[in-house]
Amino acid sequence: MDEIKKIIIDSIKKVLENDEIQVEEYIEKPKDSSMGDFAFPCFKLASVYKRSPMEIAKELYEKLTALNLEGVGKIEAVGAYINFFADSNVIASQVISKVLSKGEEYLKSDLGKGKTVCIDYSSPNIAKPFHIGHLRTTIIGAALYNLYKALGYRTVGINHLGDYGTQFGYVIEGYKRWKDEYDLDTEPIKSLVSIYVRISALAKEDESVIELARENFAKLEQGDKETVELWSKFRELSIKEYKRIYEKLDIEFDSYNGEAFYNDKMDEIVDILEQKQVLTESEGAKVVNLKKEKVPCMILKSNGSTTYATRDLAAVLFRKREYDFEKCIYVTGGEQMLHFKQVFEVAEHIVGKDVAQGLVHVPFGMVLGSDGKKFSTRKGASATIEGVLDEAIEKSRETLIQKGKDVEIEETAKKIGIGAVIFNDLKNSRIKDEVFDLDDMLKFEGETGPYVQYTFVRTNSILEKAGGLPSQVNASLLKEKEELELIKKIADLENVMKQAAEEYEPSVLTRYVIEVATLFSKFYNECQVIVEDEELKNARLALVYSTGVVIKGVLGILGIKCPDKM
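Structure (tokenized):
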């Protein structure tokens, strides 16, 4: 379809003979397919040619029709619009041929070749359970990572761990006192949380504990060997536990540099801001006054300690030097919008305005329970990510057993359960709150992950029943409405991927793959695939295969695996 669109744009430019008119910006894709595959509105040309848009449209229609545009089956002038209908033979042959030749590579492009995108996401706090609150940043961030990678970018996944702060002074103090009572190797997170809760309770009774905790953190900042070794142990054990969960989600990171990594890199940030003469004093603290935001950005507290903003600025500078990113994307909750607006504006003084324009905050809504209230511990499920995933897998296992499915139960249940959780998270705009209802998201019908997975399984089953993909295909035989609608949707994939990347919105892909699955069902119900006409059967099998490639590929970008059978 892109090739046909280019032909239309070039032809309009040719007949207009006016280089100042940006035809690319005017061309539209009608929502109603009865109005064509592409449309060119002539309203903006009225002021240029001093004529009515309808007259201009009629004249352009006559000139364009005379050119016999390749790949265009029909042109219409409707009011002030010129509508273009793609030649069904050409579009079918182009799309099917491309998918057959590329296979799973059909989803890849070189759009981002030579460019790097850093994506900062997940970022749990060490020595604490991987809470459900980190589910959305993890899933959205992973989808964006996969999307940019498919578009040809060099992608760098960064897990900016919460591994620094006074709380570690408390954990260290508790560990020193009660280490013989806990088994960190067997249950590291549970033990560390228990130690922290216990020492915090003691601190309320004995103020000397507070001072000891502060001393421990001071030693950590100063690089005391014993203290650093303890902190490193807690960090390594936490990462090991988190990696088990990431493995379930099929997620890997290129960097686990957290807050502590930037401890020795913040002095440079302060020096740069002082040299730029933008650091001013405010009630003992040092801040940068902003033009875009009313609230200044605090760099140093009144006691001289740094802030989250200081660390994030140090991270921006390090990442630019280390990765030379085109964009650095931060996937965090909407409550951090002001923080990142402040940091990005101050970053203009650190890395320059052009680089700072590549800093992007991708906010998202909260996770809500089925009752519409903020998600917390629920009956039958833990509020940890692992607990939620395990329950989703168990429910999927029970469903497969009840339905007597002839499948590899464990692996299939894992793909369905985890896929359902991911799909539900990405189904709607990320800025909306997500309603978390396991029973609803595990349904095999409706706009769910299992429904889309099942559609892929059907494509596999049809091909298997037919004996596989044919070697000779005449896609121009695909002329039925249901066939052409599905083909055009498949053809639109690259544009959908670009849109999702430009908007940092995985739900664009989720909605798209639901539409593909729905159109496939219509095609399958109206157009018998295994027919006596060998050529037609082969053409339809090729369309079935192409649909499977797209569904599996898009779900893969979203972080969802497809079972072979369901």
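DSSP finds 22 helices and twelve strands in the chain. The radius of gyration is 28 Å.
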